[in-house]
Every structure is written in structure tokens, then in C-alpha cells.
Write the C-alpha cells for this entry.
Amino acid sequence: MAEPQQADGVKAAGARKEEKLVKLRPTLFVGVGGTGMEVLMRVRRRVLNALWAGGVRVDSLADFPVAQFIQLDLDHGAVIDSGRAQAEDLQFDLVKFTDDEKLVESFEIEKYSRDDDSLARFPHIQSWSPLTPKKIRDLGIDPAKGAGQIRSISRLYFFDKYTKIRDKLRLKLKSLKAGLSRDAQLKQLGLELDQSKFRIVVVGSVAGGTGSGSFLDMGWLAGWIARDEVGSADVELMLFMPTGFSGANKDRTEANGYAALMELESAMRGYSDYVKRWDSYDKPDLPLKPYDEVYLVDSGNLARQHTAKMNDVYHMVADALFEDFASADFANKKRSIAVNQRQHKITPFSPPVPAGRFGDMKLTYSRTYSAFGQAVLDTQLKFRRDERAHALAAAMLKAFFGVAGSDIGANRATEKKRDEFMATHMHLRPAPFSDFPEFSSKDVALKRSSGEFLDYFVVEELLQDRQGMLVAGVQQRVNARLEDIKTGFAREEWPTQIRETVRQLERDVMRDQDSGADTTEDRIARRRREIFEKTREVIAQQLFAYLDNKDYGGLEYVLSLVEQIKDRLENAETGICAVLDLNAARYDEIKEAVRTYEYERLMSNLAETRGGMLGGLLGGGERQAQMVMEQLATEIANGLKFHLRAKAAREAATLMRELSRWLGQKTGVDASGAPLWNGLVGEFQDGRNAVLDMLARLERDVAILRQDLRSEHATLLAIEAAERPLPTPSAGTLREWADEAFKDLGGSRALFPMLTDPDDRPALLRKVVRMAERQMDIAGSESGEAGEPLIEALEQRSPAERQRIFSDLLQRAMPWVDGNLGRDFTPVSDQYKCFIGVARADEFSRKFKAELETCVPAGAGITANQVAVVETGVPGRAVCYAELSGIPLTVLRGLEAWRTSYRKESENIPTHTHIDSTRFSHPLAPSTDELNRLADDFKYYLLAVMLGILSRSTQRVVPPGQYQFAVARGDVRRIGNERAFRLNGLPATYREQIVGRVQQALDDVDGPRCCALAALASYYATAVYTAQLVDDETGAQQVRTGFASAIAAEAARELRERALRKGASDAELERAEFRLTEPDVLRQWAEPVPDSDADAYEWEVRAPESANQPRLKFVMRQDAQSAAAIATLLGGQASAPAAGGFGAAPAPAFGTAAPPPLPGAPGVPPPVVQHAYHLAVAGQQYGPYPAAQVLQMMQAGQIDPAQTQVWRNGFAGWMLLSQCAELQAPAAPAGMPPPPPPPPL
């Protein structure tokens, strides 16, 4: 780009004030899939079409170092934004993604599916891929046509092209980082780089295949690469919802959308473990979340504005992205709110739940999402002004170069001008030649030169050099030589000496190939070369002078002149070169006639003066010899003169041919049949073509501007504004403007190389466009045009019309997400920010702010306090940008329908991009009925685990953590993992059986064990699913009870109630809660479930205090020993078990005798004693238990009297329970006499 020409001399109020540099963050745009391409193509068009500071327009995206682009897709046919035809797109070659920007390549999917073991060769892919080789073969996808709406195909493509994607990201970030080296170029655009933080924007949709399957990987990869390359970057996602794509297989797009949102929800919580690496070599240190900002985009907005055309939404997003480059104040405002609005994204969203059942339970959903909208109210005067400027620039070029005029003949050179030019600058002034020698004989008949003929001054020019006139010099040499002969030799020797002298003179004059000496002919040839160089320079200077001469008409005139000169030179019949060749032949003919007739006659006469007829008859031989010698001198000189003239004529013809070749030769014809030239004509022709190309470029720009004027989309509101017509300047005025625009370049001779240089031509174009804009500014200031067009247009409307306009503007600018804000989630007004960017913001605000505030849409949650008017410096338009921050996915209206499609399509294709779909969570908050159903199923699942009805499988399968259920004897089946039950409840196939067995088992347990189950469920609620702690705004930690913890607590409450109904006391329940779940005690009656700590969601459960204390589930053992242990631990006395629990004296060790009991006090009856018995089973001690409980355990079969040892205080030692008489029947109180026997019958 050339430096912009500053408009000076414009001092009116309407003159453009000097703009400050816009400080922009370097931005990398990444388009994934067709949606990404659609949006970014529109961003690229806006960059190319924008007029930057000083009227500079970039000629290619390479000239805009603030932005870089990457396109990732499988579809080779997606090359242009929809609504345009490639053949009719005037900017396609400029706007299309270049090879270094796009990654749209062939994909050899067969290497992953050739046989059933193909995928095993790529373990980093096999670990996640839901596509088996057989499934890939069955789907029959042609990757060249896209991912076939199979998301996992796209992710496979991402992994396959990982190294290229990684390297392309690095290359583009390096290019952005190197922007400082292009500081001058940035300043021409009125921009400067803010390298404090870079920005990466990923654009895609959840509905299709490529974008939906790769946007998460792209976010993580971009964040990792950015951290390494530029230190810090905000990675943002513009994610389109499936609503607008329902025409492309509605069920599939909705299913893909729902699956993608499930994955996104888990990823944005930061616990997804979605990806660890993309190949076998790199070990990336990935950020916790893939994106810093996620913007949801839909075909409807929060003001209930909807569009059936996705092009409307593509334009809206592209406008919003591009606007960040357009105005310093507006861009800075948007950046400032991003920091402030993050406070609304910290605390997760918890939809309301029935408190009667769930109490303070919190369902958790991420609030890291935002939505935005933008609408533009445009007078479109800028487009019309640009159109006018380009039309004036084209007229200036035509006037300056004299091309593309309507009257072609008016600019052509005449024959007179041609002849004058050739005579003046090419030595071709014609002159008749009549200097013929006098022949003594009438027999001399000259065939070619029988009379006067036309010669050219160039011959005379060739016959003179720095040493003088060549012909005169030859005459002098001839005279001198003959005088030497006359004085130095006897008269009889004269003929011999003369002939020798003539031969010597001819050697001096004529070039002999055997001689190396310099000749007169050589001097003529040198003179020709000298004249060629000088004449060529003179011609070029004069022709370029003609280009700059307003009186001649410019380039068309020069081209016509040169073409006529060439024709005049080269015409086979009448051309000057042919005439010069003929003249050379004429001179040769005269020379030969002189030699043949005059020279030989005179030599014969000289010989006769020695005594022949002349000497003898006439006498006076000496006198006659002197006369003959004088005549010989003349004729010898004539012979040499005409030889030199013939040589000069031939050299002149050669000179003219060289000049003609230098002027140019025809090399062919172009597509229209016009001749193609090389040489100077070719240079002028290239210049004319370059000018025509510039005119075509201007016409194309005008066509693009008109196309933009005609373009319509839902968020662009046009408002008519009065435009003052400008008078059409005359051709002379246009030429003067062009002269002024190009005055610093040195005229046409400097311009022409620039015209043909692709790098310099845009600078010339910008000069004339800026000159046109400057003249328009001057004309506008002279006519008093100083107002702001948009303000004037609005003032011309009635208040009712303005209200309609402002209402449309604000409604269409509301965030484009189709959300239900009145169901579970209602944003506070501070979550909204709305900016209206205009020129002369203070004046606009003063006149219209009050009216604007009355038009704020109702029902969306935004208030007038959130609407601010900010300065953009762009006249004639208002940009309204609104953003809502901190919303959960569950507000999306279509989620329920999308989930239905998801369930349907999941039966046909893998909808997820990971083989383990249970690692993801639903983005939709359940209804009350669904929540109750899920809660019931989860409660039965927990009870089934505690009772051992469900056992955790030890097989290593995916998804991991599978639980199995004995459907029948010997028929044990995996039924899913805990997260699957959380997502969808118990499998319908097994639910009834599982519930039945749980209920039966609960009916069979006795009171103590029911107390134990209640304690175990409480343990689940507090120690397995330990509630998260969340910091509030004061820093205090608040308990956030999750679903699993709440349901486990509910199960505990129900089990406590059941235990009471089974006869347990509150004291026993309290003891169970206190005693049974102590870490060492718990393992006496329950078994841990290995690896079950991985069942819970990390974001719902507090991390364990130590890695050595995982939060494992426990299952209650069903053996007698466990029952005995439970009964002992629940005993009323505080006797401690042998392991060191509660109470007083421990039981004696096996095989030892106890001391004898102390006798009672004399005279006092013994007290009633309630003995406590210690039991031992297989070497493990339990108790103490009261006698009633021991009897109850024997009656229930929980202990075997033949295998159980018993001891109490007073026994000599341990004995078998079967041998303990006092425990064989109900124990009577001590000291009580046995009841009397019944009377006889």
C-alpha cells in the first residue's frame, strides 16, 4: 500500500477530523465446518470493502495484518458464502480462502476401517472413537462431501489432520505476532496492535458434522498453542444452534446439536477429561476448559424476533465481529464489558426443585455462556459517497490517460502529426536528391535513378560524426592523393599510381572482412548506433511528454501515433525503410555508372596523354594530363561518395528498422482480436491495459458497492436520508484533479512502470479515489454540508416514525438466542449491556436518548439503564450491540425437542464424539415429574448397591464403572454405570426386577440391620457424595448439596422410618449413625465397592482430603458375623468390643480362666442381674449383647450355636453357645423361683 494522501485545504465544519489510531487486538478467526466458512467469508468481505483511515481500502487480506484466518472443513464444495454465485462474485478471488488459510483435504478414512483391527493401530483414537471399523464401513461416508452429519467422523478427521492444524495455528499466530514489523502499514489504516492479549475466535455450529464434531478439540488446541506462541489469548466460541438448520435433516441436526451441547456443558464445567492428546508424540498441557467465552447463536432472539434465513444470522455475527475493527471507542466499550460481565458466570445455575422432597438440593448447570445481538440503522450515504468517489476516480483516469473515451477517433494522431514527429525527432525530414554526376556519354542509362528522388535527412546525419563530414573528408583525401601522384611521379606512371591509390582509398572507405583496420563504413555504422541510442531516448521522452500534454489527448493519441510511425517505416511498398533500401540501390547504381563510364574513360584519356591521339594530334600533353587528373579527382570522389551514400542509406534503413523493433513488434492477438505488441508499444499497451484494468477495478468496486446497497438482512435497517447532488465536473477539471493527484510522481514516464507493477497499481488507484473524495469534501463544504446525516434523517421523521425505527433497532439487536427466560432462569438486568454507537454521540443522545429508552423491549429483562450511547466517529449510521452474559444452556427453547431427536437418532448413529457418552450430562433441567422419576430410580440404585443386589463389574469395559444384575440364576448382566442412571434412570428392561428385589430385601431385614442400612445411606450422603463448598461474595463457604447426596439422604430418612417400624428405637438409630460408620467399624459389617469413587460427578462432590481416602461406596454383608457385629454395636450397654470400642472390662482371651465372681453382701438379697454376653465367631469377638438379643440372633439363624463361643462375666472361660444352658431358653430374672408346674389333667 502506498501512503495515503492527506486532504488539505478543507477547513469547513464538514471536514473530516483527524482520527486517532484504533488499538485492536490481533485476532485469529477459525471457521470449523460450513457455518464457520459462511460467517468468516462475510467478515473477509467487510475487511476488503471497508474504507479505513484516510480513505485507504486494503487490496487483499494480506494487507490487513490485524486478522488471520483458518478454515477447517471436509466438504471440498464449500468455497463461497451462500446467496452468491462464484461466477458472478466480483470479489471471489480476493475473498476466498487461500491455500495457506484452509485445511480442506482428502481424508483416507479407509486406513481406520480396512479391517476390524485397523483402529487398534491408533490407540489415541481408539480410546475415544465410538466408530468401530465395521461401523465406519457400514456408514459408507464419502469424506470429500463432508462428514455426512456424523460428528465422530469430523473428530476423526481432526485427529487425522492434527499436525497440519497445529502447525497452521502456530503459523497464523506467528504472523499476528509479527504485526509490529508492519507498523507503517497499520498506521496507513489508522490502526495499531494491542499485543497485551491476543484473541482467537472459533465459529461453527452444533447441527452439522464438521463443526459440531471438532469445535471442542479446536478450542483446547488453540488455547494450548496460543499459550506457547503468544503467551496469552482469549479463546472465544461463536456456536450456532440447530434451529436454523432444520431443513437439512431436522432429526439429525437436532440430535447432533443436543449431543454437542451435552459435551459442551461437561467441558465448560472443567471436569470432562474429553481429550488428552491428539497423536502419539505431543503431550499437550491443556487448559481446564476449551473456551474463555462461549456465545450461543440462534435464528431467534430474546425479543421474539425470528428469521427463516440463516444468511440473516450469518450477516449479524459477521457485522458484530467486524465492528470490533471499525471504531476505537466502540471496540473498547465491548472489551470493557467482557471483564465486568464475567462476574455473572462464576456461580453455577441451580433451577428450583420441589423443596418438600429435595430440601436444599442444588442441580448444577454452568452459566459460562453468553449471547449477543447487533443491528445497524444505516442511511447508506457512505456507500453512495463511495460509489460517487469511485465514479469520479474513473472519470479522472480517463481524462488523464485519454483512454476509454466515447469518441475513439478524437484521440488519434493525424498523418501530419506523424510526419512532423518523424521529421523532428527521427531525422526523417524528406529532401529531394538531385546531386547527380555529369556523365560525358549519352549512353549512360540509370534505371533506378533516372531523375530526382526523395531522400531523408537521416542519411546526411549518418555521413557526419565527431570528426566531420565523411564525404568531404573523402574528397580531400582523393585530391591530396592525386596531387601527391602529380608531384611525385612521372606522367607515364600516373595511371598505375592512380589505380593503386583508388584501391587504397577503397580499402580506407569500404569494410573488407579480411582487414581489421577502421574504415569510413565503420564510422557510419558507429554513427548509426549513436543515433539509435539518442533517438530512442528522444522518442521516449517526447511520447511520454505527449501523455502529459493536455492538448494531445493522452494514451490513445500516443498509441495511435506510434502505430502510424511503425506503419510509415515498415510498409512494404511505401515505407521509409523500403525507400531507404531503394535509395541505397540508386546510389550503388550511380557509383557503378561513375566507375564504369567516367573513371575508366578518364583513365583511358590519361594514358593517351603520353603520346596518343590526345598528346600527338592535339599537342599539349602535359596540359591535357592535368585536366584529366582534375576530372579523375572528381569522379573518383564521386564513386566513393555514392558508395558512402549507399552505405548510409542502408544503415539508415537498418536504423529505422531497429527503431521500429524497439517501438514494438506484433506478437499475436488478444481474446478480442486486438494486436499484441512488445517493445515501447507493448509498454504503452500494457499501460493502457493497466489503466483499463484500473477502470475495471473501479467499476467492479462500484458494482460491489451497489451490490452492498442492494443487500438486505434482518439486522440491517435502512433509513433514507437526503443527499445533496454534486455537479459533474468537466473533462478539463477532471484532468486537473488527476494532475494534482499524480503531481508528486514525476509524470507519465514514472507512472507507466507503476501502472504495470501489481504492487504499485493499487497505490495509484487510491490516489485518484482519495482525490475524488477530497474534491467531494470541498464541494460539500462549499454547499454548507456539515450536519450528521443520521441525525438529520431522524429529525425529519415524526415521533411516531422514530419510535417505530428505534423499536425495530432495539428488538433486532437483542441477543440472538431463542431462550425461555420466564421458566427456570430469569436474568437480572445487570447481566445485560447495550451500546448504541453513533457519530456525534453527545448530540444524538441529547436529541434521542429519551425516545430510545421508551423503546427498550419488554419481557427480555433489559432495562433502560443498560442502554448507553457511545461514539464511533462513523457518520450516517447507528450500531446497536446488546449482550447477555451468564446464562445456562437450559434456557434454550428447543432443548426438549432436540433431546427427543437425540434419543431417536442415537439408535441409528453415534451422536457423540466419545465412546463413553455417560461422561457428559444433560444441559436441560428436568421437569418435576422427570426429576422425581430420576430420583426414585437413583434411590433404588443406591439401595440395590447397599444391599448387594447390584454389584460392580470387575471387567474393563467402556463406559467404565459398570454395575451388573443377576437376572436369574447364572444370568448376570451389565446394566450400565451410575452416570447412565443419573442421565436416564434405571434401564426399563430391568427396573421392575431391581425395584422388586430391593423392596423384598428391605422387607426381610430386621431392625438392627435396617438401622445399619440407614446409617450406610447417611454415610453415602455425607462421605461418598460429600457436598461441595462454594464461596459466596463475602468469602464464606456455603454447602451446595448435589443430587446424589440429596437422594442418599432421602434413602437414609426412609430407612430410619422403616427401622422404627421394625421395632428399632431412636437410641439405636442414633447409635447406628454414630458407631456403625466409623472407618474401622464400617468394615466389620460392610465391604467397600472397589473404584466406586469414580462414579460421582467431580463437579458435584467435594474432593477427598487425601488420595489415600477415596470416597468409596460400601455394601452391607449378609452373613451372620455381620449381623452379630451390627447387633453388638447397637447394644444399649456401653461395653466395648475387643477391638477397642466402648465400655468397661473386656472379655478374656480365649483359653484363659476368669476370676471367680464376688459373693453378694451377707444378709442382703442378690440384685436382679441382666448379663451381657460376648460372642466369638471364627476367632473374631463381638458384643457384648443382652441375652434377649443373643436368643433372637439364634432364632433368626444369624449365628450357629455349634460354631459360636460365648462368655460373660462370671464364666470360668469361653464355652460353646450350644452348651450354655442359660441361653437355651428365655432367661428368667435372677433370684426368681421357677413357675409351678401346671395341675394334672
Q: What stands out?
A: DSSP finds 39 helices and 30 strands in the chain. Residues 381-411+676-718+725-784 form one domain.
